[in-house]
């Protein structure tokens, strides 16, 4: 399904795209316990308290490294606000933006090279 959104707020668009991608990716990679916590959160909101905060699955339990789009400082900072992401998770994206600016899809290779050069990636790590 293709979703088109017009907005003057790029962070709203980034957030929507991320939400839609994680909705598809989540069920494929998350553990049963993360599924259960999410389901309980949805059920609690529906039947008990609609103002209850929605549980956000912990993708740091599944992936060791994250390649955040280096489309601009605001994009990186907004995505790095996730309370489970550490400063080190956003560092490759910040450094790629600093060194190469917005390079679109090529930035993935720069981020992976940065993680490797820092000696942070090991055989079997998931990105």
From TrEMBL:
Top-rank taxon, per record: Eukaryota
Pfam families, per the entry: Chal_sti_synt_C, FAE1_CUT1_RppA
List, alphabetically, the SUPFAM superfamilies matched: Thiolase-like
User: Keywords on this record?
Assistant: Acyltransferase, Transferase
One GO cellular-component annotation of the UniProt record comes to: membrane
One GO BP annotation here? fatty acid biosynthetic process
- MF (Gene Ontology): acyltransferase activity, transferring groups other than amino-acyl groups
Q: Which residues form the FAE domain?
A: 4-46
Any idea where the Chalcone/stilbene synthase C-terminal domain is?
Answer: 58-118
- PANTHER family in the record: 3-KETOACYL-COA SYNTHASE
Please give the name of this protein: 3-ketoacyl-CoA synthase 6-like
**Species, as recorded:** Canna indica (Indian-shot)
């Amino acid at each position: 399904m293709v979703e088109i959104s017009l907005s003057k707020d790029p962070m709203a668009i980034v957030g929507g795209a991320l939400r839609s991608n994680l909705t598809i990716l989540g069920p494929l990679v998350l553990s049963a316990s993360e599924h259960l916590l999410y389901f309980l959160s949805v059920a609690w909101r529906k039947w008990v308290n609609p103002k209850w905060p929605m549980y956000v699955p912990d993708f740091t339990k599944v992936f060791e490294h994250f390649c955040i789009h280096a489309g601009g400082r605001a994009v990186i900072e907004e995505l790095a606000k996730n309370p489970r992401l550490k400063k080190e998770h956003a560092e490759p994206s910040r450094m790629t933006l600093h060194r190469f600016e917005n390079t679109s899809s090529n930035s993935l290779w720069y981020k992976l090279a940065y993680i490797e050069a820092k000696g942070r990636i090991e055989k079997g790590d998931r990105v």
